[in-house]
Amino acid sequence: MTSSKNNDRRPPALDCQPQAVVASPIRPQYESGAPRLTAIVTLLIAALPFLQSDLVCPQRAAAQSTAAKQDPPGATQLIDKANDSVLRAKTAASAKQRDELLQQARGQFEQARQLLQKEAADYEKEWRTFGAFIDAKKEPEQFRRKREAEQKKLRTELSLAILPYQLAQSYDKDHPNHQAALKEAGEKLELLHQKHRSQIVGRYARVYQGKCFEELGEPRKALGIYSELLSHTAEAPVMKKLQAQATHFKLICLNSQDPVESELIEAIARKWIQANPTLLETADGKGILAEQARAAKNRDKKAAP
Length: 305
Hints:
mainly alpha
């Protein structure tokens, strides 16, 4: 099985998204010694900007913070907590503490799944109430509301498809449940891609499907998917972000092969950096820089006498 040593998406026409239903990112820690696999998990979610609000409003943030103290945790908060538990389990002081943290994470993932399934059913019902067609010019408000309902529906569907991948990280790689969860995620993501292959959400499902193949020990399939996504012309910002994630995941996969083609990895990274200077500070931009540095280190190590 391939190891990963060392996570808008929306139709391009949709310019604003409400709060995410997936967990917010935990900052990857490449240099701090935190497990690389956990960094990749959280980076997957960090690489979903279309699921997050496009505008940061202090008043809204304060209101959400107050509400969070009063209301039971939602899917977002549960997944945040579960990811944090998985991260802390990697450095637990004892086997007992590690097991308790991972069990806690699995319970939170399950609670999140149940909430997301209910939300998905509600959003589907809401979306269907608008009927098959609304004339945007004659009924602009109804058109806007239907589009908003569709956005919520698609975000939730993608969150549900990604969730088994996150759950897989709470198991050791040789555990049957790790493999089973990755396969489940891959199947759900494939269905979502087939259903929305012409939309950004379908293409992001494809990116995550590639990640599942990589961790299932099928790097050729993963690299094929990343190359497929990178073959599209990327002019819209959302496509550039998608291709940044695909490039990042491609470099992770290439860096995990034996032997490592360091020169190829460095060339791909340089090309992306030159073409996307404004994305260097994004989660995927930093990840690409880290993979470039990793490849260079490996090259220098080989060249040493």
